[in-house]
Amino acid sequence: MEFVNRIVLVKAVKYAMKSYLTYGKRLAVENEVDFPAELMQPNMGVFITLWRYPHLDIRASKGTMKSGNSLLQVAIDAGIGAVKHDAIFPAIKTPVQIDEHLLQITLIKNVQTICAERDITLNKDAVIVSYKKHTSIFLPELVSMTNLDYYEALSQLCLKSGLPGNMWNDPELNVYKGQVETFFEEEVGSWNIVEDMKHIKRNKMITSCCL
């Protein structure tokens, strides 16, 4: 994604989260011609993660794997979902708290069905399992940091989705891979976090919530 469009996406998501916490309303993208064409593409997975700064721990993570809406609208909805629905982490209740967090955006593109371990590179691709209404995903950072092999990753994804750990053997369960593009905003409030991001990648496990 072009750098300028990353900036637009980050600012739009943060504005939408603050607006929701202030007014309780979801921000909708109405006049799409006002935005770059790259942000209007449909059917792209988006995950929004908020890192508490300077503690560098996760405070919210939410996303979706597929939607007919534009990338911009999906990212906005994921950001609002992160502050509204995420029951795993401590709640973010005020707009001021948004500026105390580092925003990470992860795009999931070119999702494809895979049939065997040889079809995926775990430290580069996202791995996704889907069974009926159960869907879950591991980003490549998580698999790398935990040293999971292919079958261990599938087992953990099944458990994460609320399924038995051996459910990956079921022929009705689908396994997918997706290309990942991850970027962070460059500053949080008045703090510069460029060096701290190296610390995150070395020492923190980046996770994503079940869909």
Give the helix/strand layout.
Elements: H1 3-23, E1 45-52, E2 57-64, H2 71-84, H3 95-98, E3 101-113, E4 125-131, E5 134-138, H4 140-146, H5 150-160, E6 174-184, E7 187-188, E8 191-192, H6 194-203
Antiparallel strand pairs: 1-2, 1-3, 3-6, 4-5, 4-6, 7-8
Structure, described:
The longest helix has 21 residues, at 3-23. This protein folds into two domains: 3-108 and 180-203, Glycoprotein, Type 4 Pilin; 110-177, Dna Ligase, domain 1 (2-Layer Sandwich). It has six helices and eight strands; from the N terminus they run H-E-E-H-H-E-E-E-H-H-E-E-E-H. It starts with a helix and ends in an 8-residue tail after the last helix. Strand 1 and strand 2 (57-64) form a beta hairpin. It is globular and about 45 Å long. By secondary structure, it is α+β, with helices and mostly antiparallel strands.
Termini Cα gap:
24 Å
Under CATH, the topology of the largest domain can be stated as Glycoprotein, Type 4 Pilin
Order of helix and strand elements from N to C terminus: HEEHHEEEHHEEEH
Strand content bin: 25-35%
**What would you call the quaternary organization?**
single chain
Let me know the average pLDDT.
Answer: 80
| Helix-residue proportion | 25-40%
CATH superfamily of the largest domain: Hypothetical protein ph0010, domain 1
Count every helix, treating DSSP H or I runs of 4 or more residues as helices.
6
CATH C-level of the largest domain: Alpha Beta
Helical/strand content category: alpha+beta
Q: Give the biggest sheet.
A: 6 strands, antiparallel
- Poorly predicted residue ranges: 187-211
Strand order of the largest sheet: 2-1-3-6-4-5
**Number of domain units:** 2
Assigned CATH architecture of the largest domain:
2-Layer Sandwich
Strand element count: 8
Cα shape: globular
Cα gyration radius (Å): 17 Å
